[in-house]
Automatic annotation (TrEMBL):
Domain 3-hydroxyisobutyrate dehydrogenase-like NAD-binding, residue spans: 166-284
Domain of life the protein comes from: Bacteria
PANTHER family: CYTOKINE-LIKE NUCLEAR FACTOR N-PAC, OXIDOREDUCTASE GLYR1-RELATED
Protein name (Swiss-Prot/TrEMBL): NAD(P)-dependent oxidoreductase
Assigned protein family: Belongs to the HIBADH-related family.
Pfam families, sorted: NAD_binding_11, NAD_binding_2
Annotated 6-phosphogluconate dehydrogenase NADP-binding domain residues: 3-161
Taxonomic source organism: Halobacillus salinarum
Keyword line: NAD, Oxidoreductase
Length: 292
């Protein structure tokens, strides 16, 4: 199959790199073409025209920053869906909300293009190592069609249900990711204020049954004051906003989610947005005047 990958950011670049390394006939497109240089060295073809990049593709993957980017790139007046050939398949790995995913499906259908949602669980490291978990929404035959490619980019693919169900599960996953990080941060703050040592808390709390497993990895970042981006704080804030919109759409009262969203919003506007989302901890330290 001719495969095109659109969006070569932190996640998309790593995913496309794994496809290129897997001998996939791959064309890539990114607004900033410099990001494609490593992929060209791996044998991928760069097309600087978005429409030409997809016109011969049997399968198009997108990994973009959110609904606005997908709208502009795929669905707007200059969007690429209108240039895809009839019967081809668009797989959106971007984190968006379910209502927008349904809009993507309807727009693709009008152009005789198949569509499925395939957001991923995992950050920069798993993306680079090909260990993402794909959360798939779509028809069984389409899930089977993309299986050779998701198996290159990830360690597992979960067919959640029809279109938008992959995105729905992604909303739940990221809601829990963010709230767990925020609760851990507040626990750390209280512990330190009560006189417990930071290193002791980082050694102890992640091994307790009350802690989410991913916090063991984040504890190492907190210990080293290393907030290099794996999944940015500003994107986590965006995802919490999307979860809040989904709650509003479906009359679900997400009280804790909205409180956590505001905490991430404060950290974002105070200059922590481009850091890893675990930097919410560093923001809290600054509020409490705690020494490093």
């Amino acid at each position: 199959m001719n495969v095109t990958f659109v969006g070569l950011g932190v996640m998309g670049g790593a995913m496309a790199s794994n496809l290129a390394a897997g001998d996939v006939d791959l064309t890539v497109y990114n607004r900033t073409k410099e990001k494609a240089a490593p992929l060209i060295n791996q044998g991928a073809h760069l097309n600087e025209s978005l429409h030409e990049a997809v016109e011969d593709a049997d399968l198009v993957f997108t990994m973009l920053t959110g609904p606005d980017a997908v709208q502009e790139t795929a669905l707007g007046d200059l969007g690429f869906v209108q240039s895809m050939k009839p019967g081809s398949l668009w797989v959106d790995c971007s984190t968006v909300h379910p209502a927008f995913t349904k809009l993507c499906y309807d727009s693709a259908l009008k152009e005789d293009v198949r569509f499925m949602d395939a957001p991923v669980a995992g950050t920069k490291g798993p993306a680079e190592q090909g260990e993402l978990v794909f959360l798939l929404g779509g028809e069984e035959k389409d899930v089977n069609e993309i299986a050779p490619y998701t198996s290159i980019m990830g360690k597992k693919a979960v067919h959640v249900g029809p279109v938008s169900h992959g995105t729905s599960l992604k909303m739940v996953v990221n809601l829990m990711l963010a709230t767990n990080m925020a609760v851990f941060t507040e626990g750390m703050m209280l512990g330190e204020k009560l006189g417990l040592e930071k290193d002791f808390l980082l050694d102890t709390l992640p091994d307790m049954p009350v802690a989410a497993p991913f916090l063991k990895m984040k504890a190492d970042k907190l210990r080293q004051d290393n907030y290099d981006e794996e999944f940015s704080l500003k994107n986590m804030h965006k995802d919490l906003h999307l979860a809040s919109l989904s709650g509003f759409d479906h009359h679900a009262a997400l009280k804790i989610t909205n409180i956590v969203k505001e905490a991430f919003s404060e950290a974002n506007v105070n200059g922590y947005g481009d850091l890893d989302f675990s930097a919410i901890y560093e923001y809290y330290r600054s509020l409490h005047n705690l020494e490093k």
